[in-house]
Amino acid sequence: MSIGYPSTMLAAALAASVGATAVAPAAAQEAKPWYKRAWDPANVKPCDRQCLVRIGEAYLLALQTKDLTSLPFAEQVVATENTGKIDIGTGLFWRARIQPTDFKITVADPVQGQIAFQSVLTIDGAPALTAIRLRVERNMITEVEHMYDRDVAPEAMELLRRPRPELLADVPEDKRLSREYLTYAAESYFDALTGEDGSIAPFADDCDRHEQGYQTVNHPTPSRASPSPRLPDPSTELGRFFLKLSTMTCAEQIDTGVFGGIKRIWPRRTLVVDQQKGLVATFPFFVHDGVRHVDTPPRIAGMERPQNGAGMVTNLTTMETFGIRDGKIQEVEAFPFVLIPYGGSDGWTQPSTN
């Protein structure tokens, strides 16, 4: 003999069952990231410059708090630190105590979906030169690049307290240059270095280059022409050469052939173009093979640079930010310098010694 539910009880049970099956999928959907849920046209949102800056600033804050939960990471994220592959949440930046300073240059490119920060951070209580690049696709972080140099001499700090105001200011809308112009101008800087010809790039006469925190060009009186805490020794021929070099313009320095030890600058990876600020951030890869790649040594007004053996045999990558206004390269900010063994790579492209 079978025992059945009264019709009213059966109807209530069926209703509860149907309700449960309807609610469960909705709850499950909410637990998924947006890109794993049912299609919703509302998720199709552009990420303009303001959006990129918001995501970038959230990332910088997360480095300080060590809380990743609010960051919009994609399902797969490629990340490097000083050219080595890392997992998100590992590496120096995610393990050390991080504090911001007043030195931060922001370059945001909504066309390519990239943002780069060139900044001085306090890492475990000491200043460090840092660069951070993020790629954002569909409002999610898909690439993270960290670079740092913690060997910062006190002599460098004078120009590392705050960025030059020109690198922070907006360019008036009627004076903004096209992406193509900004890109060509930034690329021409590296063409000039390897071509030993300052006329290849559109340098302003008062172009001011800072490397690792040191002004290395256009000094009113003889000073540094290389990023070093030590001043050139005027009692030596090499010291006098560099003292003279320090008073030259960006173009004049290149004309001397002093950069002839660079075998190539390639790849010139990732041009982050910020039309609003008139900035281009680059991540070039310098290859030095110990050979001078020009026929004659550098000369300055009849002064011949002493030949002091082989040059560097190393690779170097960095972040170089160009301030380009009125059609000219006005500022160059280059740091941090990350040295890599010769034959190594930048972590994003295949190495080559050809």
Automatic annotation (TrEMBL):
Compositional bias per record (Polar residues), positions renumbered to this chain: 213-226
InterPro entries: DUF8021
DUF8021 domain location: 175-335
UniProt keywords, alphabetically: Signal
Spans annotated as Disordered: 212-233
Signal peptide (residue range): 1-22
Any Pfam family the entry gives: DUF8021
Protein name: DUF8021 domain-containing protein
